[in-house]
Amino acid sequence: MALLATGDELVLPGQTPGRDQIIASNVFALKAMVDAAGGEAIILPIAPDREDALAAAMAEMLKADIAVTIGGASVGDHDLVGRVGERLGLERAFYKLAMRPGKPLIAGSLGAVPYLGLPGNPVSAIVTGHLFLVPMVKRWLGLEDVQPKRVSARLAQDVGPIGTTDAFHARAAGRRQRHALCAARQLAAQCAVRRQRAAGTALG
């Protein structure tokens, strides 16, 4: 699997960020998730926000079994992934989801290669990585049970209305009393996800 982070704002760990730059972290978290699922992820050099450079970088992804970009999947002036991808044979199975975080996601094929375009926001990238990327890797490996495991938990505080979108709220999870209830603010290394579905909405 080829992982390609995009954006002029990104620099690799060990480099000094400029005034408007940040350290790239999503791509390393996603690689860890892919490797843990049994895949083998290769991190490509960061692609800048120039169509020619992005096209060259995305063309390199065609050598992989699965192609994944991180960032640039929205509709801003510097979100070039969709436009450049179309010139390389991108066909969208779907684009944008009624969920948050993670709405601007592209899924389809880049030429003959299965393709995912994940959002650049760190939380969005990790959530969509768990929900779409990891199952994709497991299915590629021939596994049947590929969907994320669901657990029930009791929230330690109320969550406001979310309209018609599926909302994923990260909370610290911990065992509490004999019923092993999840309590927010405990064991920050764990994460409990609450998924609230609107009537008639199904995202797989």
Write the topology of this structure:
Elements: E1 2-5, E2 10-11, E3 22-23, H1 26-36, E4 42-43, H2 51-61, E5 67-70, H3 81-87, E6 90-95, E7 99-100, E8 106-110, E9 113-118, H4 122-140, E10 166-171, E11 192-196
Parallel strand pairs: 1-4, 1-5, 2-3, 5-9, 7-10
Antiparallel strand pairs: 6-8, 8-9, 10-11
What are the salient characteristics of this protein?
three-stranded mixed β-sheet, 11 strands, 2 domains, 22% strand, 4 helices, Molybdenum Cofactor Biosythetic Enzyme, Chain A, alpha/beta, six-stranded mixed β-sheet, 204 residues
3D structure, described in words:
This protein has two domains: 139 residues, 3-Layer(aba) Sandwich (Molybdenum Cofactor Biosythetic Enzyme, Chain A), CATH 3.40.980; 55 residues, no CATH class. Helices cover 24% and strands 22% of the residues. It is built from four helices and eleven strands; from the N terminus they run E-E-E-H-E-H-E-H-E-E-E-E-H-E-E. Strands 4-1-5-9-8-6 form a six-stranded mixed sheet, sandwiched between helices. Strands 7-10-11 form a three-stranded mixed sheet, with no helix packed on it. Strand 8 and strand 9 form a beta hairpin. The longest helix is centred in the middle third of the chain and has 19 residues. The two termini are 23 Å apart. 31% of the residues are buried.
